[in-house]
Amino acid sequence: MCAPVVVESVRRELSRRGFLTAVGAAGIAAAAAPGAAQEKPLRLPKGFRDVVDLTHTFSPRLPVFPSFSPVRIRQRFTIPKDGFFANEVTFDEHTGTHMDAPVHFIANGSTVDRIPADRFVAPLAVISIEPRAAKDADTLVTADDIAAWEKRWGRLSAGAFVAMHCGWDARIGAPDRFLNRDAKGTMHIPGFSEEAARFLARQRDIVGVGVDTLSLDAGAAPKFVAHLELLGAGKYGVELLANLARVPPAGATIVIGGPKHEGGSGGPVRAFALV
Amino acid sequence: MCAPVVVESVRRELSRRGFLTAVGAAGIAAAAAPGAAQEKPLRLPKGFRDVVDLTHTFSPRLPVFPSFSPVRIRQRFTIPKDGFFANEVTFDEHTGTHMDAPVHFIANGSTVDRIPADRFVAPLAVISIEPRAAKDADTLVTADDIAAWEKRWGRLSAGAFVAMHCGWDARIGAPDRFLNRDAKGTMHIPGFSEEAARFLARQRDIVGVGVDTLSLDAGAAPKFVAHLELLGAGKYGVELLANLARVPPAGATIVIGGPKHEGGSGGPVRAFALV
Fold first, then answer.
1. Which residues fall within 8 angstroms of residue B91, CB to CB, at 6 or more apart?
2. Could you report the per-residue pLDDT of A49-108, keeping only the tens digit for each?
3. Which residue of A19, A234, B71, B260 is most buried, as measured by CB atoms within 10 A?
């Protein structure tokens, strides 16, 4: 390996030009002295060139899961009348690009305001099943898909966030195509298989799971099996993600501005990928 | 400077041990060849050891600016009855730890959903006036305070977010002390002076400004002068920030999970400092 003094001289050169602000001195010190004690692991986001917005604009025209109502946005104050403009907003927690906290399905599970903040900044793994989903709306993310991702990119790291990309966000402007119901009313939308959800919940130390559809579970899945596995293991979910096609399979960092209202089972998020 | 080959060998060494995942190869390449063309500036968050949550739990007990109502959280679905638990939430946009978009005060100003995503990841400058505010609730962030910060930490960088810390978040559990009204009903709360707001709005290329109070303007300030200067210049505001005492004056990165509802003048955010 390079001598610490070389590393240090490189660090100085880079820092002087302001390029290496990405790595704190502590990071370099740790790198230069691999045996040095470290109180907690450094969790460094990659340097990034772009902020990809993974969030759909929250509007009454978005598709919503049956049972829920579209968001209502009502103007209450106007500049001519009040000197400022402001709305009142009413939403069902599980609409828009939104989070599912464990308590959504698990009695005594964590509410949104109790999830530790550091679980909202995570290495982002994107598993794309888009080509398959284009042909088969009932396709699932399987344990084999996860194994294939790990074979190419390495084991899912502790603290990672795993997103399914099936291309559904391209349907966002057409709620009928998004919900994709058959004559009997059953939705046909991809999701995580029970086996894949169980693997992620029990075999990997991830913080959460996301989808570009409106449910972790496939439209035709029975009994919310993926939700129960994942939320039951204390993971959170994020549904209706946007723009995953603009994010690489590995290497990005997701930051999820999760809701923090008291006792919430979920709620709209603002999610970014630092790419 | 070090030869690119040395930089590259250091990069390989560090990467191999996983410490330098903070810096993408592109960043190192740019550093090694300072004259190389660069399509856009690298905006790299510092390596960080902690995620500080700058967000208060959004509850009906938080202080609210006069005119607005506390958030309402109503249980609509329960696990025993529906198989899942979910609430409906109604809020006035300018309650909780929240954003002010330019349109809040400026006709035709940007709405929350139109602010580019990359303006929500920013170098965080914290200007503390806490010692003064402890003695004088009407104290203001002045242009001199900004000059003193810049003398110590360097010129506010393009794309920075500037937060006033006056210690008001310690009063969050006591709305009367937070609003701090006198017998005539006038609030006594620190804020940005008109001069400081004008300087930040016109002389520095910042993205936004935050406070740990409920207004960019001081409680006793006339006519929303700081709001008009800052929002008029296309900056956004974030109010009711928490935990700024845990963030250094310079060097942290703020990520603001801003609201994205259609046409919003503002709304609850989730804000983190990567420290």
1. A88, A89, B58, B71, B72, B267, B268
2. 899 999 999 999 999 998 999 999 999 999 999 999 999 999 999 999 999 999 999 999
3. B260
Q: Which residues of chain B make contact with A103, given a CB cutoff of 8 A?
A: 85
Task: Tell whether A98 lies on the interface with B, counting CB pairs under 8 A.
Answer: no
Q: Please state the rounded mean pLDDT for residues B109-113.
A: 98
Among candidates B1, B14, B257 on the partner chain, residue whose Cβ is nearest the Cβ of A13 = B1
Handedness of CA B204, B206, B211, B215 (dihedral sign): positive
Residues from chain A that touch B26, judged by Cβ atoms under 8 A, are: 47, 49
Q: What is the pLDDT confidence band of residue B44, given thresholds at 50, 70 and 90?
A: low
Whether the model clears a pTM of 0.95, i.e. scores above it, the answer is no
* Closest in B22, B60, B103 to A85, CB measured: B103
Sign of the CA dihedral running A143, A241, B82, B259? positive
Nearest 5°: phi and psi at A172? -60, -30
Instruction: For residue B206, give every residue at least 6 positions away whose Cβ sits within 8 Å of its Cβ, in sequence order, or none.
Output: B122, B156, B158, B159, B160, B161, B162, B200, B235
Facing residue for B262 by CB, picked from A58, A103, A113: A58
Tell me what ipTM this predicted complex has. 0.85
Asked if the C-beta of B71 comes within 8 angstroms of chain A's C-beta atoms, the answer is: yes
Do residues A28 and A8 lie in contact, with contact meaning Cβ atoms separated by under 8 Å?
yes
Helix H or strand E segment including A270: strand A270-274
